[in-house]
Give the backbone structure.
Amino acid sequence: MNKKGFIFDLDGVIVDTAKYHYLAWKNLANNLGFEFTEEQNELFKGVSRIASLKLLLEIGGKTISQEEFDQLLISKNDEYLEYIEQMDESEILPDVPRVLQYLKQQGMPIALGSASKNATPILEKVKLISYFDTIVDGNGVTKAKPDPEVFLLGASQLDMAADQCVVFEDSIAGIQAANKANMISIGIGDPEVLHEADYVFANFTDISIQFLNNIIAG
Ligand code: B16
Ligand code: MG
């Protein structure tokens, strides 16, 4: 039987937490006295919390002490946690359960590959955690996307060769990470933004069973 390992990013692929990250970073930027646009936010997707704050300070042209840096990381996450506390199944992005169910029925191993340190509580809140054979998140990796570490670890935990794995990603950094890992990269979002992906779909509703079968057989 043909078998592929499927690795799902979390934020922006399974749930739309990207909007909450954006809101928290935007409020932080505004408090520091500068603007932060949705376009700039594209570069933050899939990027770790620490790297995101460094980027934000560069955008604002701010230099701060290590102590203040650590404090801002905490306050950004505290605001983000308030948003995700309210989450339930209604925040799952369209047709994600259909695809997870189909892959599970076909006996495909499934991993989460996320930069977030909040991945497990989010999957529990939206009640999707049982689909995942393994979870690789920001607590288990040292190198952030576009480094392929998160996906390579996912593949090895699924006991699959990297080139037999398929990654669903909404971020430029994540697509680059999947490509570096020699995996099939499937972008979820805007084809212009995610032009480095092997395939791009606006959302999971556009992903047919036929397409999944071809990927599994390929
Ligand atoms: P946290 P993903 C990433 O998750 C987000 O896209 C990115 O915006 C965020 O900064 C990063 O997680 C860290 O998240 O602050 O919760 O640890 O897209 O890789 O699932
Ligand atoms: Mg993402």
Notes: Residues 95 and 205 are 5 Å apart (CA to CA). The chain has nine helices and six strands.
